[in-house]
Amino acid sequence: MAHYVNEEDFIHWRCAKCNSELELRKVVVSYLDGSFPVELPVCKVCGQVFIPESLATQKMLEIEQQMEDK
Amino acid sequence: MDQQFMRTMESICIQNEPPACVTACPLHVDSRTMLKLVASGKFEDAYSLYQKNVPFPSILSKICNSPCLSKCRLSEIGEGIQIRPIEAFLNQYADPSFLPKVLPEKRQKAGIFGSELDSLSAAYDLRRKGYQVTILDADAVLAKNLRAFNEEVLPSVEIENAIHLLEKIGVKIQTDFEIPRFEELSRYDSGFFRIGDSEFQCIYLPPLSGELSIDSITRMTVTEGVFSGSASAGYWIDQMSDGRRAAISMDRYLQKVSLTASRENEGAYECRLFTSLKGIQPTKSFISTDIKRTGQADIIKEAARCIQCQCLECAKGCEFIRHYQDSPRTYVRQIYNNISICTGLRQKNKMINSCSICGQCEAICPNHIPFQKVVREARETMVATKKMPPSAFDFALRDMAFSNSEKFRLAKVPVDSKACKYAFFPGCQLPASNPSAIETIFSWLRDEMNEPVGILLRCCGAIADWAGEKEKFNQARSELLADWESLGKPELIVSCPTCLKMFREKYPEINVRSIWPLMAESDSLFNGKSRLNSIKMAIHDPCASRDQPNMQEAVRSLAMKLGIELEELPYNRELATCCSYGGNVWNSNPSLSKDTVEARISQNQSDYLTYCIMCRDFFLRSGKPAYHILDILFDPKLIIEHRLPIRPDYSMRHENRTRVKRHLLKQYWREEMPEEAPYEDIQLILNEPIRKLMEDRMILEEDIRQVLYHAKESGRAMINQETGHYLAHFKPSCVTYWVEYLPKEDGFEIFNVYSHRMFVEEGNI
Amino acid sequence: MNPAPGGIALTEKLLNLSLLQKGSMILDVGCGDGDACRFLSSEGYRAIGLDIVRHSSGKMNSERIQGQINAIPILEETVDAVLMECVLSILPTDDGSLTEIIRVLKPGGILLFSDLYMRYPDEELEKNRIDSESDYPKIRLADELLNIFGESGLSVRYWEDQSAVLQSLRLKFLWEGSASENKFPYKMKNIGYICLIAERVSASG
Questions:
Q1: Are B287 and B298 in contact (CB under 8 A)?
Q2: Is C176 on the interface with A (CB under 8 A)?
Q3: Distance between CA A3 and CA B631 in Å, rounded?
Q4: C-beta atoms of B341 and C189 within 8 A
């Protein structure tokens, strides 16, 4: 699967609750009745997801706008 | 919006109507474009355009009687454009080897009597369509009348070339035929006309003695298959047009299709395009009466005189129309297509959501096209069919939801009264921007009116109305009505022009009055106030004041009483310009909003005065010194010291509304506000760059507080090993917010904020 | 292998629209991993899955036969219903599949159909459809589908647009961006998903 998040984007972040590293894992993203599994950095222990600013403000925003435009 | 409505709308927008020179020309030569090309030296292209509409350009351009000249708009104030000499000039750019394309040969035969311009044009057109065409004339020397011209005016070689061209494309010529009288022509049972040894399915008979009656649309005589024209010999271009129109009919006749369908606008007709001549200086023609003295430079100058007639009156006022670069007629069709056939191009959704719905174009338009009605309905349809992009108006709608929440809404009669005759309704934005003004006005109103004055705090619902959210609007409306009834159905005193408009249109039950005439006539308001020393300001009428001249007058009167010297801005009064708050454009299209404001603030160098707080705030945001009339009334020091009013950011706007409620409750009713939410006492440390980021990304302090509260409760956050910063996220309703922070002694220091609408499923451990 | 758009929820909808009695025999053509068959069995129907691939990668708790849709190894007029989810658009035109389906359906038998379709005429889509072969799904206008069914001897009782189920597909293509463009070049906006119930009209011939 293509990399949507570079390792350098999340290498320095850890889960504060579990004090554990993040690993890439499939999580389901959904918007407007559509859903799709995507690999994102997630806490190995509790599953908390990490979404870097660049992903949210660029790719996700573009996709949201495209999905909205029916 | 049904198709009929759309067609009506389309038909009354005239922007796409041809200009006067085109409608006056029986051949509809596109002179406007041709002149534009000549003015920029593109002679070959200009010639091509001319030739497209004219069968024998080298002949017509020398002898045309120019019906366009008297119809050119410039002739109303000076000299019209002399188009014919320009066309004659262009002949040198003709391609000598030019041959028109001829369609594959058809079986049918057309007989064309005569050889003047009408017959020659008919022959030309029919032959190009592939028919077998024969010109029938008495004399071997054709076009006798044309040859009557002076050799200097129309060299006979041009006539020879024209005939030669016809022969080259396959037109047959038979001389020795007297042009018959109409009665002599009759069809055989076979459907043919017999002329000499030849048979023809249809005939063109020139109107020599002018007594042939023809159907004005089909150009057919009473004998089926015999066609003619109506022009007398003298008007050459009309002859050409005759020939052309007859050829259209004959082609259809031979194909056995309708002779009448889509025949409008053949020949000259009345121009429907409105072009303003305002500010146009009359000019004289550059073409000398002695044509030999006119050179290329003069030709170009003459072409450049053309004002390129357009009706873009609405575009002169509205940034939205300028931005999308088209006319309302096209938009109407695009909107209709988007709604019904839903080609769903992103631009069209965005376009529909980018109109201010302010009615300026309707006021400007010579035909008063109700474009705002079209847009409003379109948005309602989009919402009803679930096609409205959620992010378009979400932030604005949340603002309205806040105003109608416990944090702001209030309906109170004065203490010791069961009902009140009047109630002050300040709307949702003035309290957000200038909370102390609300308190001052309320206090003044209680003294000024001889009856008890209550308070009604809410959003009038305009935001939902603009967003096409019928249900949300209806809900806001019924809640407001319920509050109003609980106050004893008072007359509402309203300060916001938009609220006033809403009340008048959507709340017929409620009596309302504008506060501005009250203020203008009040003595007590001016007691002890010294007049300012003739401060010059340019007044901006908010778009909602468009149909309320009383309000417009009252504010001007108020301003003058305060010592302000007013200048008018262009597009004021009935033509008032929207600042982009209208239609929630600032939410759905921030870049257009910015352009709109910039266009408005650059229209005058003086400081601006207005009476809608959103207009003031948008001007301030783009760097224009702007004041609300209440700023001057209640805080004249601002103006004297030339300080600017403070424009609160989005978070502050919410804070301020709550502040108004809290203060009024305490001061007049000795009541406390209901409980605060648990996250409200979280302290935030925000520097300027973060505040700006929040503003740009439309993220509020209360959103940040909710994220931090949730992080504390759940213990869920990320930590950065290099910086030690925490990162937490939370989704209060539709949007997920991310906050990067550090807990400090006196609160949380915030380093970054961002958001997204997409939902991400997470583990639940 | 991907389940059809709309998943089991849509299969259930088709079932409800068809008013088939429990115990009816339903043939799922192009059954893939057998998700629909599993569901149908659990709802009390007798489900048979037909696929060109011999084995299912998941557990099939119902019958499975290997074969092609245009040569179904079943006797004529045997099944009460045929389930055809997102299959017709990826079959070659006129390959005999519909004829076979009708052959094995009892007279009065039901076709439960769902597939991609073209919501409104679109020049580019038309061009792609005509020029290309095999790989690209054949996206037809609703009217065309109705015609095809009619000519085969199927009377369409009901159809409705279910394009919302394509949202996940859209989301997938938007995320994968250029990677998936080659597989699906059509403008997503004009492509919809249709749900349809048809009945085999009484014995042919």
A1: yes
A2: yes
A3: 55
A4: no
Best-predicted range by mean pLDDT among B144-158, B218-232, B382-396, C132-146? Answer: B144-158
Of B472, B456, B467, the C-alpha closest to B401 is B472
Is B341 a residue whose pLDDT tops 50?
A: no
How many beta-carbon pairs under 8 angstroms link B with C?
Answer: 7
CB B741 within 8 A of CB B748: yes
Find, among B208, B209, B226, the residue nearest to B114 by Cα: B208
Q: In B, which residues are within 8 Å of A65 by CB distance?
A: 346, 389, 391
pLDDT beyond 70 at B343: no
Distances (CA, A) of C199 to B302, B582, C15, C77, C107: 74, 54, 14, 13, 8
* A63·C171 Cβ contact <8 A: yes
Instruction: Kindly list the residues from chain C whose CB atom is less than 8 angstroms away from the CB atom of residue A35.
Output: 168, 171
CA distance B162 to B156: 10
Residue recorded with tokens 């001057």:
B632
Please indicate if any CB of chain C lies within 8 Å of the CB of A68: no
Query: Are β-strands B718-720 and A13-15 bridged in parallel, bridged antiparallel, or unpaired?
Result: antiparallel
Identify the DSSP state of B337: I
Bridge-based pairing of strands A13-15 and C154-161 is unpaired
Closest-CA residue of chain C to A1: C176
Query: Do residues B113 and B136 lie in contact, with contact meaning Cβ atoms separated by under 8 Å?
Result: yes
**Per-residue confidence (pLDDT) for residue B321, from 0 to 100:** 87
Q: Are B353 and B588 in contact (CB under 8 A)?
A: yes
Chain B neighbours (≥3 Cβ pairs under 8 A) are A, C
Closest by CA to B700, choosing from B749, B654, B759, is: B654
pTM value is 0.69
Nearest CA in chain A to C5: A34
Contact yes or no for A34 and C169 at CB 8 A: yes
Give the A window 12-51 contacts with C, CB below 8 Å.
29-36, 38
Assess C174–A contact: CB distance below 8 Å, yes or no: yes
If you measure CA to CA, which chain A residue comes closest to C191?
A70
Choose among B345, B752, B757: nearest Cβ to A53.
Answer: B752
Tokens encoding B736: 């997920």
Q: What backbone phi and psi angles, to 5 degrees, belong to B603?
A: -85, -10
> How many other C-beta atoms can be found within 10 angstroms of the C-beta atom of residue B191?
11
Predicted local distance difference test score (pLDDT) of residue B15: 74
**C93 Cβ contact list (under 8 Å, min separation 6):** C138
What would the DSSP string read from start to end of B587-627? HH-HHHHHHHHHHHHTT-SSEEEES-HHHHHHHHHTT--EE
- Residue B2: alpha-carbon gap to chain centroid: 20
The CA angle B184-B188-B189, to the nearest 5 degrees, is 150
Segment B645-690, tens digit of pLDDT:
999 988 889 989 999 999 999 999 999 887 778 898 899 999 999 9
Tell me whether residue B72 is exposed, middle or buried, using C-beta atoms within 10 angstroms of its C-beta: 0 to 12, 13 to 18, 19 or more.
Answer: buried
Chain C CA closest to residue A65:
C174
* Shortest distance, CA A34 to any CA of chain C (angstroms): 4
Residues B125 and B131 sit within 8 Å (Cβ to Cβ):
no
Class of domain A2-69: alpha beta
**For residues B539 and B568, is the Cβ–Cβ distance under 8 A?**
yes
Strands (E), B502-576: 512-514, 535-539, 564-568
Residue B137 CB partners (closer than 8 Å, separation 6+): B113, B114, B115, B119, B173, B174, B175, B177, B179
- Kindly report, residue by residue over C2-12, the tens digit of the pLDDT: 678 888 889 99
Cβ–Cβ < 8 Å for B433, B616: yes
For chain A, what are the domain ranges?
Answer: 2-69
Chains in touch with C (3+ beta-carbon pairs under 8 Å) read A, B
Nearest to A35 among C168, C176, C189 (CB): C168
